[in-house]
Write a structure and sequence with these properties.
- The chain is α/β, with parallel strands linked by helices.
- It has one domain: 3-Layer(aba) Sandwich (Rossmann fold), CATH 3.40.50.
- Helix content is about 35%, strand content about 20%.
- It contains five helices and six strands, in the order αβαβαβαβαββ.
- α2 links the parallel β1 and β2.
- α3 packs across α4.
- It is globular and about 65 Å long.
- The structure holds nicotinamide-adenine-dinucleotide.
- The site of nicotinamide-adenine-dinucleotide has 24 residues, from α2, α4, α5 and β5.
Length: about 170
């Protein structure tokens, strides 16, 4: 009989949830210190923002990043259950790749509701098999569920959340 090995391993899960007011105030460093303990000299970030949130807060976000001399790329995504697709995920992956994100030092920042967080979450979980990210939820579902949970999911065919990952970080 051929030899058989049983392999067991445990993956520790460790991430922080912070309740922060005025996240885009220029004197609040949280947005740039979150998501990584490894700091590079030059701050670089890909920021993916829900289109409606970008209409409301785009200037504040840009002012914040400019004030802190961040080299950034902003992607504004139109979000709905119809656009929560693999195409949207690959669009984010493409942007992350073009910006040449360093996966441990340059967490992707996702700002939006559950749909945006699901799209970006799946993208960062796939990109180089795990890239750090910071979630800024902007809806109630985002605050209580998608922004703090450990799963990502997008729609496929006629099915909701048919493709996804367990991504507890
Ligand atoms: N991954 C998870 O753990 C998890 C958990 C729960 C829900 N979800 C997913 O979350 C999705 C639902 O999320 P949702 O309810 O946040 O909906 P949503 O992300 O579709 O947002 C609803 C609408 O609000 C807009 N919006 C977002 N923030 C806004 C703001 N601050 N001001 C004005 N408009 C704003 C968006 O553009 C959108 O049109 C579902 O697809 C669900 O599957 C995921």
């Amino acid at each position: 009989m051929a030899p058989i090995w049983n392999v067991n391993s445990v993956l520790p899960v460790n991430y922080q949830v912070k309740m922060i007011d005025n996240i885009f105030s220029i004197d609040n460093p949280t947005l740039l210190t979150g998501g990584t303990q490894e700091c590079s000299n030059i701050l670089r970030r890909v920021v993916v923002v829900d289109e409606k949130v970008y209409q409301l807060y785009g200037k504040k976000i840009r002012d914040y990043l400019n004030f802190h001399s961040v080299n950034y790329k902003i992607i504004s995504l139109s979000t709905s259950e119809l656009t929560k697709t693999i195409d949207a995920v690959l669009h984010v992956v493409q942007a992350i790749d073009e910006f040449e994100v360093t996966r441990r030092q340059e967490p992707v920042i996702a700002i939006g509701g559950g749909v945006l967080l699901d799209i970006v979450g799946l993208a960062v979980s796939l990109y180089r098999r795990s890239t750090r990210w910071v979630r800024i939820p902007t809806t109630l579902i985002g605050l209580v569920d998608a922004g703090v949970g450990a799963k990502t999911g997008i729609n496929f065919g006629h099915h909701k959340n048919r493709i996804g990952t367990y991504f507890p970080c």
